[in-house]
Design brief:
Blueprint (H helix, E strand, L loop, with lengths): L6 H17 L2 H10 L4 H9 L18 H14 L1 H8 L5 H7 L2 H7 L1 H5 L4 E4 L15 E5 L2 E12 L6 E7 L11 E7 L5 E5 L11 E12 L3 E2 L5 H37 L1 E2 L2 E2 L4 H29 L5 H26 L9 H9 L9 H13 L2
Parallel strand pairs: 1-4
Antiparallel strand pairs: 2-3, 3-7, 4-5, 5-8, 6-7, 9-10
Helix pairs in contact: 1-4, 4-5, 4-9, 6-9, 9-10, 9-11, 9-12, 10-11, 11-12, 11-13
This protein binds flavin-adenine dinucleotide (FAD).
Flavin-adenine dinucleotide (FAD) binds next to strand 1, strand 3 and helix 13.
C-alpha cells in the first residue's frame, strides 16, 4: 500500500499553497467576508495558472488530471481561506456533470471557458421545498416542439448571480411511477429571458462566495440543451455527487488544518499563569486530537478519491469520508475558538471566520445525516 503522492501531485499542492498564500491576503479575506464580495480578477488569475477544472479532459481545455488533484488544490485553498478559495474553486461546480453526461457538442462549447476563467457554472438542484429529498423537486421542464420551457425556483444556488450557465435539475416525467425516473438535467444559459437571480445575504460563512435564490419563468431553451437522458436525472445527480462530495472532504480537511495552525500559533504565543498556554496538557491533548482527526479524514478522502480515479468508486466510502470530514472540521474549528478564549470570538481573529466557514461542509451536497443514511443503507442492504 502506497500513501505517498507523486512528484506531480506534490508540485500541484505546493503551487496551490503558494498561490493561496500570495493572493488570499488576510485583509482581503476579511474585507470579502465582511462585505460579501469577491474580486473576480483573483479567480481569473487562478484560472490562468491552471488551478480550475484540472479534472477536465485535455480535449475540453483541462489538464486531464484526476479528481484527487482537484481535491489537493481545494484543500490548499481552504487551508488559507475558505471564502476566497470557494469563490474560485466552485466556479467549475457542474463541469463534472457535463463531462460525465453532456453531449460532445455541449462539452466542447461549455467546458473550455470554465478552465480559462471566461465563464462560471453552477448546478441548481435544491428548491424551497426540496432539499435532502431531491426527488421532491418540482421545477418543471415541458417539451414544446424543438424547445423545453422551464418554470420554477431553486434555493441556495452557488454562483447563481454570476454564473454564465447552470445545470438545472427539472421535473420532466411527473407520471413515472418511480420517483427516481422523473427528473432530467438541462443546461440553461443565464442570459435567457425569464431567468432571475437574487443574491442571498447574511450567510454564516463562505461569504465571499455567491449564493442565490434563482427563478425560471417560461425560460425557453433548445431541445439540444438536455444533458444526459430524459428521466435519468436522479442517477446522473448521484454520479455527480459521488465526485463533488470528495471535493467537500478536501474543503473540510483544508479548513481543519487552518484551525490547527491558528491554534498552535496562538497557544505558543499567549501566556497565562506565567507559562505559555501550550505548556498545559489539556490544550496539548486538543492539538493531538485535531491533528489525528485531520489525518484520519484525509486518509479517508484520499482513498475514496484514488478509488474513484481508478474507476472503482466506492459510494459508501465516499459518504463516510464526507460526513466524517465535515464533523471533524466543525469540531476542530470549535476547539480552535476555545483555545483562543475571548479572542476567538472576535472578528479580527481568523479563527472566528474559520468557525463560521466550517459549518457548511456538514450541510451542502448531502448533510451529514444523509451521508450516514447512505452508509447505513449500504451496510444493511436496504
Ligand atoms: C451556502 C450554501 C450553498 C449551497 N449551494 C448549493 C448549490 O450550488 N446547488 C444546490 O442545488 N444546492 C445548494 N445548497 C443547498 C444544500 O445542498 C441544501 O441546503 C442541503 O442539501 C440540505 O437541504 P435543506 O437545506 O433543504 O435541508 P433539509 O433537507 O430540510 O434538512 C434539514 C435537516 O433535516 C435532516 N434530514 C432531512 N432528511 C433526513 C432524513 N431522511 N434522515 C435524517 N435526517 C434528515 C437534514 O440532515 C438536516 O439536518 C447550498 C446550501 C448552502 C447553505
Amino acid at each position: 500500500m502506497d500513501f505517498t503522492l507523486s512528484k506531480e501531485q506534490r508540485d500541484i499542492q505546493k503551487a496551490a499553497r503558494e498561490f493561496a498564500l500570495g493572493e488570499f491576503l488576510p485583509e482581503k479575506a476579511q474585507e470579502f467576508d465582511r462585505n460579501e464580495t469577491f474580486d473576480p480578477a483573483i479567480r481569473k488569475k487562478a484560472c490562468d495558472l491552471g488551478f480550475v477544472g484540472v479534472f477536465i479532459k485535455e480535449e475540453y481545455g483541462g489538464a486531464g488530471l484526476g479528481f484527487l488533484e482537484h481535491c489537493l488544490i481545494t484543500e490548499e485553498f481552504w487551508a488559507v481561506d475558505a471564502g476566497m478559495g470557494n469563490a474560485i474553486i466552485t466556479s467549475s461546480f457542474g463541469a463534472e456533470l457535463l463531462q460525465l453526461f453532456g453531449t460532445e457538442e455541449q462539452k466542447r462549447k461549455y467546458l473550455p471557458p470554465l478552465v480559462s476563467g471566461d465563464a462560471v457554472i453552477g448546478t441548481a438542484i435544491t428548491e424551497p421545498d426540496a432539499g435532502s429529498d431531491v426527488t421532491g423537486a418540482i421545477t418543471s421542464a415541458v417539451r414544446n416542439g424543438d424547445e423545453w420551457i422551464i418554470n420554477g425556483s431553486k434555493m441556495f444556488i452557488t454562483n447563481g448571480t454570476i454564473a454564465n450557465y447552470l445545470n438545472v435539475f427539472c421535473l420532466t416525467d411527473p407520471d413515472n411511477p418511480s420517483r427516481h425516473q422523473r427528473h432530467s438535467f438541462f443546461l440553461v444559459e443565464t442570459d435567457r429571458k425569464g431567468y432571475q437571480a437574487n443574491k442571498l445575504h447574511g450567510k454564516l460563512g463562505i461569504r465571499a462566495n455567491d449564493t442565490a435564490e434563482v427563478s425560471f419563468s417560461d425560460v425557453r431553451i433548445p431541445a439540444s440543451n438536455l444533458i444526459g437522458r430524459q428521466g435519468n436525472g436522479f442517477k446522473e445527480l448521484m454520479a455527480f455527487f459521488n465526485l463533488t462530495r470528495l471535493h467537500i472532504c478536501a474543503m473540510a480537511v483544508g479548513i481543519a488544518r487552518a484551525a490547527l495552525e491558528e491554534s498552535i500559533n496562538h497557544i505558543k504565543k499567549r501566556h497565562q499563569f506565567g507559562t505559555p498556554l501550550a505548556s498545559f496538557q489539556g490544550l496539548q491533548f486538543k492539538i493531538a486530537e485535531m491533528a489525528t482527526m485531520i489525518r484520519a479524514a484525509r486518509n479517508l478522502y484520499y482513498e475514496a478519491a484514488w478509488l474513484t480515479d481508478q474507476g472503482s468508486m466506492d459510494h459508501a466510502l465516499t459518504a463516510m469520508a464526507k460526513w466524517y470530514s465535515g464533523q471533524m472540521a466543525v469540531k476542530c474549528a470549535d476547539e480552535a475558538v476555545q483555545m483562543h478564549g475571548g479572542y476567538g470570538y472576535i472578528d479580527e481573529y481568523k479563527v472566528q471566520r474559520i468557525y463560521r466557514d466550517a459549518k457548511i461542509v456538514e450541510i451542502y451536497e448531502g448533510t451529514k445525516e444523509i451521508e450516514k443514511t447512505i452508509v447505513a443503507k449500504t451496510l444493511l442492504r436496504l
